[in-house]
């Protein structure tokens, strides 16, 4: 079988000095399994390339396995170490320029510095945007302090990819159910809510050129677009207003990837609600298996044109690859 050429957008790596940050997510994963992906995360050679080749991935856009410096308490250290890990990734990108792209890692403790670092990574290091791992010190990206980052990203024409992370506190609804606190459910709730904060804050009215990527087939939000429009009309919104119905921002400013969702039903829903030009292929390597993601998209009940758009051409257009 001839494989559809692919660009993969949620493919992770690890810097050996960032393992302590990564360890903060151990609470979300079975103790018997946490850490088993370490070798794959640190490999930029034959193991990773062979996994890409096995399913037709031409280019992987690499990002640090979160949360990275977003959990750092000292702002100066966070800013310095974000720059260090971006330089580290840039070296690996230079070794394999046709195979590896990158998303910048940013220290949102200082949004102005994060904006400068994003510009450096895009202009000087050839990166295609940034990945932000949820909230930083209980600050979400709709906060006015983050305006410099959105303004710069819009000026550069590059997207911000919001990746799941834990909330700043554990709510009672997860009490007694640790299995729900993490990738099974809470990360979806947290990331979807983060995205909705951006939509309802009017951010995309202020920065109509801003581009947002969500993983995991849009964190369930494509399923809810009609209801978001309907209930926005009766919500307790005070003086808040939007230029467009909420669903329209998903069709103008937001893209989603297939990372970690290998199922036709949510894919069809996302095509129907957002359009096949808003969907991008991703594996979520090495936390998901390339073979499962590749086999699924090749067999998905969509047209060959849609498959090529989702697997490669939409990413080419969005990321200028």
Task: Name a few traits of the molecule.
six-stranded parallel beta sheet; three-stranded parallel beta sheet; 12% strand; 9 strands; single chain; alpha/beta
Topology order in helix (H) and strand (E) letters: EHHHEHEEHEHEHHEHHHEHEHH
Helix content: 40-55%
Main pleated sheet: 6 strands, parallel
Distance between the termini: 25 Å
Return the structural class.
alpha/beta
Strand content: 5-15%
By DSSP, the count of extended strands is 9
What overall geometry do the principal axes of the alpha carbons give? globular
| Rg over alpha carbons | 19 Å
The overall pLDDT average reads 96
Number of helices: 14
- Model regions low in confidence, pLDDT < 50 over at least 5 residues: none
Order of strands across the widest beta sheet? 4-5-6-7-8-9
How would you portray this structure in words?
The protein starts with 5 loop residues before the first strand and ends with a helix. It is built from 14 helices and 9 strands. The strands form 2 sheets. The protein has a 6-stranded parallel β-sheet. A 3-stranded parallel β-sheet has the order 1-2-3, sandwiched between helices. It has helices at residues 19-22, 38-42, 46-54, 75-95, 111-123, 147-156, 186-200, 203-206, 216-219, 225-232, 246-252, 264-274, 290-299, 304-319, and strands at 6-13, 57-64, 100-102, 104-105, 130-133, 160-163, 212-214, 254-257, 279-280.
